[in-house]
Amino acid sequence: MGVVPDPVRLFVAVDAGSVAGAAPAHITLAFLGEVAPERCASIVAALKTAAETAPPFDLELNGVGAFPSAERPRVVWIGATEGRAAVEVLAETVREALASVGFPQDRKRFHPHVTLFRVRSPADRRRARDLLEGALAPPPSHRVRVAEFVLKESELSARGATHRTLAAFPLRGASGPSVDPAADVAGSTTSGRER
Questions:
Q1: For the domain that residue 158 is a member of, what is the CATH number?
Q2: Which of 58, 82, 83, 106 has a CA that sits 20 to 30 A from residue 178's CA?
Q3: In angstroms, rounded to a whole number, what is the distance separating the alpha carbons of residues 169 and 89?
Q4: Which of 111, 113, 142, 163 is catalytic?
């Protein structure tokens, strides 16, 4: 009997460049978890189809928040403002494509963000409180042109996760009507400790 390849931990993301001086950041569109290597071809085919219909767009990251709440932060993030509606539509398109090849859609509401840091120590808690209460200035606003999304592999280690891009999917859809920025804001190799 031959050696069975290990499953890989995969997610689909939009690269967001360097945010707040951190290493290259991303917005996770869909998390697939541990995936058997033989399923990768069908994932890539589904994602190619999704990219054919999605148009490129501009995205602005601005303002901080926390999950699950500002009172009990475990993850501190910078959120999407301008372009929020477009990235939400892209996430839905990607998730539907993945559902078509057997990956159930996440039931949680998609909240487009880039993780700044995870709260793991008393120093992290103080930093989170200071950022969320305005004692520390938030990271500067950051703009990025979203012209593709990527399939990434995540390798976990004691130092955090290392992400490697396996495939890129250029957005080829025609640009639709512009989105009202006011409506957009309503509802308002990478190394790091993010999924």
A1: 3.90.1140.10
A2: 106
A3: 16
A4: 113
DSSP secondary-structure letter at 189? -
Tally of domains in the chain: 1
Q: How far apart are CA 82 and CA 128, in angstroms?
A: 24
Confirm whether 26 is a catalytic residue.
Answer: yes
Q: Which domain holds residue 88?
A: 8-174
What would the pLDDT profile of 79-114 be if each residue is shown by its tens digit?
999 999 999 999 999 999 999 999 988 888 899 999
* Distance (Å, whole) CA 27 – CA 90: 11
Residue 190 domain flag: no
Q: Residue 72 half-sphere exposure, CB side, CA atoms within 13 Å?
A: 1
Q: What tokens were used for 86? A: 């477009």
- In 3-state terms, what secondary structure has residue 178? coil
List, edge to edge, every strand of the sheet that includes 113-118: 113-118, 73-80, 57-68, 142-146
Say if residues 35 and 9 touch (Cβ distance below 8 Å). Answer: yes
What pTM, to 2 d.p., does this model score? 0.83
Whether 4 contacts 36, CB under 8 Å = no
Task: Choose among 154, 76, 79: nearest CA to 118.
Answer: 76
Catalytic residue status for 163:
no
